[in-house]
Amino acid sequence: MRVLVLGGGAIGRAIAESLRGEFEVAVIEKDEIRAKALEESGFHVINGDFSYTATLLKAGVDKAELVIITTMNVDVLRKTVYVIRTNNKDVPIVTVLPDDVGLDDLVSQINEEYEAEVKVDYAVSPRNALKDALIRTVERIGERKNANLLVRKLKELRNQTDSLLIVMHDNPDPDAIASATALSVIAQTLGFKTQIVYGGEIAHHENRAFVNLLGIDLRKVSRGSYELKRYPFIALVDCQPNGNLTTLDQSDYKKIKILIDHHQILQHLQELIPEDAFLDIRPDVYSSAAILAEYLRMLNISLSPLMATALFYGIYIDTKKFSKLSHIDLKAIEFLAGKVDYELLDKIEHPDISTETAEILAKAIMNRRIYKNVVVSNVGFITNRDAIAESADFLLRLEGITTVLVFGIVDDRIEISARTRDVRVNIGAVLREAFGDIGSGGGHSQSGGARIPLGIFKLAKDKGSLLRLAEEAITEKFLDALKVKEG
What we know:
nucleic acid binding, elongated, Diaminopimelate Epimerase, Chain A, domain 1, DHH_sf, 6-stranded parallel β-sheet, alpha/beta, DHHA1_dom, 18 helices, inorganic pyrophosphatase (n-terminal core), Phosphoesterase, Rossmann fold
């Protein structure tokens, strides 16, 4: 790319030095002594006033692919932009601007003075540039601090044992699985033997493909099992006690030494786990995988294509296919993108759908009940819990529907998934309000889940009566929390 740098002072020279080698750079400098010094340093220099047509043409402005203006003199700047545009209407212009002049003001002044329609593509003010640089530095210090604190805690635990149990929520999704795997990699670099466990099911066909294709070692455990009791320390990833985690007994909580999550912090969390536990809970981040990617980046731990693909897909799923991203998620995507195995990613995203999932999806469609723009659907007694979430995702695509709740009965509990695209609704808060008093519920603004023990519903005479009672209670509570009247 042919780049013209207008001005060979401190800023112009620094820019030219940074671009030299990668781009074809020419510098226009009016001062003869400075121009000669630049030439002696190996730069292509045009000695002249860059606000004049002859100088710009001599420098090849008509063939330039980028022009960078470094003067802070607004009068010279206005004239220069006009002359550039007279000779090259399309070349991108980047300019430095005094702090008290805005880009729109500059363009308006040029158009008024020269009675011409011109444009300046990019402008940088020293004050804003300094502010942005300081913010980036502070963010990097914060990132490094979080990673260092995690390593410090791991080293502290390593002095007492070489075993670490990493626990995910009951029905782990790609975000939880990828995050747990990344934490395992970090711990293993410090000499730990790790085991990743969960207590429920991995039933979603994409999630099963994710685990199988990436070769991730997971183990299902039951509450009170020896597998849980034999580990002296526990790390929780993408979950918190008393949330979507039922595998731990109260006595296990004191062994929790690490907790990494992106969900809202649960009430009384500090009372449940030890005071010295490492906590990194960031509700403003949309995936735990992004937090773990930040650790790996800060710790300079090399990533295999499998690990990068796992984290990338975890972020992809929890951010609704990158539709909602925090700056932490964006940084993680940038870090991972060049390391991902995209052929493998395609296989994970498009696995064959199981017959059971197809049948549950059909039930969700057939059993749907519509209340204005809200759908509630009962899929009955099932074993594949993840199919409930898949059904909710599908029903949200129906024309005119903005909010969906799907529920089914799995073993001795009612499992619920809800989705919304209504910006006025925080579905996680709605689920907490609706079902918090009879079970648990929560999530994010657009998606969430709830779980209700069957409890009194077991008094129903038969399965049909149980489903009717459950549907009536769930529908009433959900619509009340949404402030939607039945009808």
